[in-house]
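FAQ

Q: What does a record look like?
A: Structure on top, sequence underneath. For example:
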């Protein structure tokens, strides 16, 4: 999947006495900026670095974009995080993970099937 967008992304790294979080975004057109990947080093999760990255993106891009969007699996790890950051569910792409990956993907012991999109006005 990464090969599909690697040439058109902008990457950000949050460095706080060492790299703590990274994020990759793409311009999806029509005022939509999409988070393609965001990751915080496991030992720094739950300390606000992911939210700080999202807040940074919203502030940086608010003049050029109206929506910050993210697609994720229906996971108890990711959906609540994005909702706490002000995202609301937008739409679903059925069977996304089954149709686009050659192997099952699991998170918290649950197979990811549909892509859940969430959006935040910026």
């Amino acid at each position: 999947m990464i090969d599909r967008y690697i040439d058109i992304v902008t990457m950000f790294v949050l460095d706080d006495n060492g790299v703590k979080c990274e994020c990759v975004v793409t311009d999806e057109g029509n005022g939509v900026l999409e988070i393609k990947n965001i990751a915080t080093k496991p030992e720094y999760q739950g300390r606000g670095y992911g939210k700080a990255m999202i807040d940074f993106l919203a502030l940086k891009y608010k003049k050029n974009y109206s929506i910050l969007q993210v697609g994720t699996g229906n996971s108890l790890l990711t959906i609540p995080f994005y909702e706490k950051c002000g995202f609301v569910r937008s739409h679903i792409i059925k069977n996304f993970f089954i149709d686009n990956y050659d192997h099952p993907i699991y998170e918290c012991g649950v197979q990811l099937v549909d892509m859940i999109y969430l959006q935040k006005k910026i």
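Q: Is there anything notable about this one?
A: The two ends are 27 Å apart (CA to CA).
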